[in-house]
């Protein structure tokens, strides 16, 4: 079993918040494809990266799904779609092997 986490930004690169329709689209797509998801939307997480030697901060929400098999190609293609949709250089999607108890 795998846990796949998507870290999505709350604002665009100019600091303007994204509309809820972007997240609704992600929620619908993942629910249709995987049968369900969990979204952590109440308290945004804070991500920090470095660009050109300067720290860049992002408020993020996390969507996660569990799946028996990990289709790396499907996730890579979906990541590119999300990067275009959210106008980001990179959207982080990570997967962990888990044991369901």
Explain what this protein looks like in three dimensions:
By secondary structure, the protein is an alpha+beta fold. It contains two helices and four strands. The chain has helices spanning 20-34, 72-85; strands spanning 2-9, 38-51, 54-67, 92-97. Strands 2-3-1-4 form a four-stranded antiparallel β-sheet, with helices on one face. The longest helix has 15 residues, at 20-34.
Structural class: alpha+beta
Distance between the termini: 11 Å
Largest sheet: spatial strand order: 2-3-1-4
Largest sheet: 4 strands, antiparallel
Shape: globular
Mean of the pLDDT scores? 88
Indicate the radius of gyration in whole angstroms. 14 Å
Helical element count?
2
SS strand fraction: 35-45%
Q: How many strands?
A: 4
Low-confidence runs of at least 5 consecutive residues:
none
Helical residue percent band: 25-40%
- What pattern of helices and strands is seen along the backbone? EHEEHE
Please specify the SSE layout and strand pairing.
Elements: E1 2-9, H1 20-34, E2 38-51, E3 54-67, H2 72-85, E4 92-97
Question: What can be said about this structure in brief?
Answer:
By secondary structure, the protein is an alpha+beta fold.
